[in-house]
Amino acid sequence: MAYIHLSFDEMWEKFVACDRSYDGIFYVAVRTTKIYCRPSCRSRKPKKTNVEFFDDIEEIEKAGYRACKRCQPKADYSPHVGLVREVVAFLVNHYKQRLELKDISEHVGVSPYYLERLFKQETAETPRTYLDKIRAEKAAYLLTNTSGTNLQICYEAGFQSPSHFYKVFRQVHHCTPSEYRSSNRKGEQL
Q: pTM above 0.85?
């Protein structure tokens, strides 16, 4: 474990700012609740006088604290991996449907705002852009494996409008659907 020598006030500032870069470097224990958290925990902040800082989970648990259920400080991975996987699976399985953020958030049981923020934090993309990429990949597959027109493929891949289809496809594949299809056919003939 990497040890960083920070003062109490510096650690307090990192905790108040929910700074993820210090997760695993130190832990925050709350005397009144007997719970400990990661520095990035989004739970309501306690009074500064009720806080202790520790470098090590064993040390903090010997002192009688238990892990926060929200930020899961004992996990080696982000505590939100399960939620992100569930969202991705939902998007992959429902890409043909007209989906709004509230549909996805209802499926996973969190608010739309929280879902969007958390998903972007974990994947660097919004659920909408991730869904667009899934649809663009499906369209690319259909372009090389079917004889459907671009318009048919647009709707088969779940896009609601041809203009959005062309825009997203160009962003993901750096060419138009027609160029993609012809370049892949040329590759097959060689």
A: no
* Count of beta carbons in the 10 Å neighbourhood of residue 2: 6
C-alpha to C-alpha distances, 47 to 29, 31, 32, 33, 38, nearest whole angstrom: 11, 10, 10, 12, 16
Half-sphere exposure of 146 (CA within 13 A, CB side): 16
Amino acid at residue number 134: I
Q: Are 53 and 66 in contact (CB under 8 A)?
A: no
For residue 44, is it left (φ>0), alpha (ψ between -120 and 50) or beta? beta
List CB contacts of 19: < 8 A, sequence separation 6 or more: 39, 40
Distances (CA, A) of 79 to 70, 126, 135, 182: 8, 18, 28, 44
Bridge partners for 182 per DSSP: none
Task: Give 122-168 pLDDT, tens digit per residue.
Answer: 888 899 999 999 999 999 999 999 999 999 999 999 999 999 999 99
β-pair type (35-37, 51-54): unpaired
